[in-house]
Specification:
about 250 residues; 11 helices; globular; disordered N terminus
């Protein structure tokens, strides 16, 4: 994303920085809830080093024993990432597009390397987990014997992580209207919902409603029914655009 596009975003009112931007973010964290838990509460809980939801502990458990985690653990894991230093929702657009293209071209080893890079930056990327599962499955089909079995087993593990994270996102909001949106931490994760239910994207619009910002997808299901899905990207946009500004050269 270049400076010209950034200026356009600012002129359209998609983001505000400085004191005003921080005030908008603080207010959004109070008002936006996931499964009846405010994002402000999520931030406090994952930042408490003495608490059960301290973020490094959640990540370690997710990687080692996700079967022992509860729904609230997964909720804190997915949405808690928004408050980590490494959270940067707009930083990996090019990598994500390349990853998807490589899997479509059956270049699974290269796709696996990009998936690893993405998940190192964002361990709860729903998009990254499903693309890694696809890459590993593709490698299993090309390998033989024990190598094939090992790739397939790893593919199942990342497919399960994808399932867990998608269901966590779904529990946070149904996406049926502006009042009941699905809250995203990265815009690309919206495609995980579409993929899970084999929905075809017909159009996508960026809509503002007051101080909130939404990606609205018009989709068609396998039964040929059309309907919109609403995704709230307010917090992701405020934090992401602020970090983008930090990366731009200062005049």
């Amino acid at each position: 994303m270049n400076r010209f596009f950034f200026i356009i975003c600012v002129s359209l009112g998609f983001v505000a920085f400085g004191v005003q931007g921080q005030d908008k973010l603080t207010q959004a964290l109070k008002e936006i809830s996931v499964n009846n838990i405010s994002l402000e509460t999520v931030q406090a809980m994952v930042s408490d080093s003495n608490g059960v939801y301290f973020y490094p502990k959640l990540v370690e458990q997710f990687e080692q024993a996700p079967q022992k985690m509860l729904n609230t653990d997964f909720l804190m894991l997915y949405y808690g990432f928004m408050f980590m230093e490494s959270y940067d929702p707009f930083a990996h657009f090019a990598l994500e597009d390349s990853l998807s293209a490589l899997n479509e071209q059956a270049r699974h080893q290269e796709a696996l390397e990009l998936a690893n890079e993405l998940l190192l930056a964002n361990p709860v990327s729903i998009f990254g987990n499903i693309e890694k599962a696809i890459a590993l499955n593709g490698l299993s089909e090309k390998a033989q014997g024990l190598d094939s079995s090992a790739y397939l087993q790893q593919s199942f593990e990342y497919l399960e992580r994808y399932r867990i994270l998608v269901e966590t996102m779904e529990r946070a909001g149904v996406g049926s209207n502006y009042e009941k949106p699905i809250v995203l931490i990265t815009p690309k994760d919206a495609q995980a919902i579409l993929r899970r239910y084999r929905l075809t994207e017909l159009s996508k619009t960026l809509n503002g409603q007051g101080d909130r910002l939404y990606d609205v997808y018009l989709v068609r299901n396998p039964q040929e029914q059309q309907y919109p899905i609403y995704f709230d990207i307010t917090v992701a946009n405020l934090i992401g655009m602020a970090k983008l500004q930090d990366r731009l050269p200062q005049d």
